[in-house]
Design brief:
Layout: E1 8-14, E2 20-23, E3 29-30, H1 42-53, E4 58-67, E5 74-75, H2 78-85, H3 94-102
Antiparallel strand pairs: 1-2, 1-4, 2-3, 4-5
């Protein structure tokens, strides 16, 4: 028996910067998960994934479960929360940007 399909988003890493990016409805990649396309149809998800995997701007594209949130899609997998925030072993990159945003 097949289980029902759950909504997903497509994530990857930007080729040039290595940043975590999310595929939007307009085929763009963004580091803001709120702009990610929440895909609710399995066949559409597979087609979007094939297109994302052939896009030379990003590497390692894959589907990850998500749910609709107040400000856009929210990842369900613990791993995606870590990828979204960046490494937690020392402040740099994403953590510094977030700190700067809060202190502006």
């Amino acid at each position: 028996m097949n289980r029902p399909f759950s909504p997903v988003i497509i994530t990857a890493n930007a080729l040039e910067s290595g940043e975590v990016v999310y595929l939007s409805e307009n085929d763009g990649w963004s580091d803001d998960i709120r702009t990610a396309e929440l895909i609710e149809d399995e066949a559409h998800a597979q087609l979007r994934l094939l297109a994302a995997q052939s896009d030379a701007r990003a590497v390692g594209a894959y589907l990850t479960p998500a749910r609709p949130g107040r400000n856009g899609p929210e990842p369900l997998a613990l791993r995606e929360g870590f990828r979204q925030r960046g490494p937690s072993n020392y402040p740099h990159g994403k953590q510094e940007k977030q700190k700067a945003r809060h202190h502006v």
